[in-house]
Amino acid sequence: MLSMQVRRNVSLILLVGLLIVTGVVWSMGSQAEGLKDGVYFGQAQGFAGNVGVDVTISGGRIAKIEVRPHDETPFVAGPAIEKLVQTIVETQNTDTDIVTGATYTSKALIAAVKQAVRKAEGFKDGVYKGSAEGFGGTVTVEVTVAGGAIAKVAVLENNETPSIAENAIKQIPEAIVAQQSWEVDVVSGATYTSKAIMAAVETALSGE
Fold this sequence. Notes:
This protein is of the alpha+beta class.
């Protein structure tokens, strides 16, 4: 028969093993719940222009990152983008080091992927405020999230030219709610106001 000490040791080993397995399963479950499957777009300012990415989430994980056509210097940006995309997918972590010699492109790619991942995480219910600079000054918005979705976007304050900005102030919030994304088409003739509303909504939902 096994001694009391041996049986205690065996029990302890089994308990530790159970805790490890439970922890792994819990971690996998929480990750799957944290990121909703789908394809999400993100973009950020690089050295020569915007760098846009389409991030595919599958099984709650970052499955693929596709970089849209951009104006970054090919021989500088190309290797950096390839390396960063590979690293982020392999590590499932957007907090990665920039590539030496391609600082602007690296930061833009990382920021764009983070933006896309934030969308995959969904939105937490609540009422949020955000601001951004428009053509005539600061544009402030209030974003209402209900049931994990953007329910309402209201422009609270702005100093834009009424005759130019009014269509953007009406149409951009409606488009954001319809598409559940702050990246929508600008209103012709009101580019600055349109972009300011989008940026303010992003700030509100990102908690920045």
